[in-house]
Each structure stands twice: as C-alpha cells, then as structure tokens.
Amino acid sequence: MTRVSTVDDLATKISAAIMTGELPVGMWLRQEALAETFGVSRQPIREALRQVQASGMVQVFPHRGALVRGPSPRDIREAYLVRSELEGLAAELASANRTPESLERLWRAEEAFRQTAASALEVTLGDDVRGDYGWGHANDMFHYAVLDAADVPVLRRTIEDLHRVVPRNLTWSAIRNRRLLEENVRQHQAVRAAIESGDAAVARAAMAGHIRRSGDLIAEWFEKRQREDGAGSA
Questions:
Q1: Looking at the whole model, is its pTM more than 0.90?
Q2: Domains in the chain and their CATH numbers?
Q3: How far apart are the C-alpha atoms of 167 and 59, rounded to whole Å?
C-alpha cells in the first residue's frame, strides 16, 4: 500500500485493498497498524474507517478495531446502477453544455485513453493483458472531462462518493483481456462522439450503458475471486 494524506484518499485505498483481497474478508484492521502502513496518525485512519463502514465494507467495533466484511456482488451492481444514472446525466449535460474547450479536452482524454490501451495490448501473455500502462489515470481523465463539461459540482461530488464504495480503478481487474479492453475503448469513443454531436439522449444512453457494463464485469470478477478463494481454503 502507498502512503496517502487525506481521509478520502485513505478510505478509497482501504476499500480498494478490501476489493482486491489485500485486506481479506474476516480480517481485523487495527488503527495503529493502518496508521503505520499509510504514514499518518490514528485520527485520519479512524475517520476513514467510518467512511468505509458507511459503505458496508467493514464493521467498526469500539476498542477492538474494524472487521472486514467486503462488498457483495449485489452491492457492486447496485453502486454501478446508481453511478450509471448519474454519469449518464453528466454525459447528457456535457452534450448540452459543450464548448470548443470542453470538446478539445474530451478529445485529448479519449486519445490518451486509446493510446494507453494500445500500449497495454502490445505486451500480452496469450489473451491476458499484463499491465495497465496508465489505463487507470487515462480512464479518470476521460470521465472527469465529461464531468467538467457537465459543470454541476454537486453531481461530481456525488459520483466521487460512490467511488469509495467500489473504486473506479478496480475495473481494470475485470477487463484484462484483449476483447474487453477493446470494447472499453469503443465505449469511450461512442460517448465522446455523442457528446460532440450534441445528441444528449444518445450520450446519456452510451455513458449509462458503459457504466452498467463495467459494474457487471466487476461483480462477475468478484464472484469468481470469491469462489476461487473459497476453493483454495477448502
């Protein structure tokens, strides 16, 4: 785990570690140990654990620590269902409010995303893509370009809150093969094209479908990982 400095960052890092199994279900999290790991005091750890508890991923017990529960596949799908509606709205508003500057930023973000995906596909092992080559950063650039074009701060904050339930960068774990990664690129292209054309309804549908697809893939990946973990401990 890397060091972080804010409560929100801590909550996101802890949630991501739970999702990937770095902090497995059933593990007790001690504030002292987490504070040492992240290089912070216990106070921000305490606040971050409260945020993670609100998402249902841990249960905090006074004087004992926090017990990792982990999300259920249903939790993941529901979080992404809500996200799909919110980010679909963002794409609709971005289409209606588009400016030459916002479209230029969206073009640059999509191109950066396409290039990072191409870099990842150049180095493969069979059908499995080994490294993300900046995919997570480029993916964030694209989605934030849409949110910035929509220009509704409360919508952005609400979407960011949902990322603490299921961090966006976990999508990479679920799409690490050529077919799904290329599909991901096409979905971004469709969203950008709809926003650029000013077709608000198509932009909303394209973004909502993109987010729901990601949620289904992450839930399926998480279900598979749980089955494999269960088989390994049997």
A1: no
A2: 7-68 (1.10.10.10), 73-233 (1.20.120.530)
A3: 19
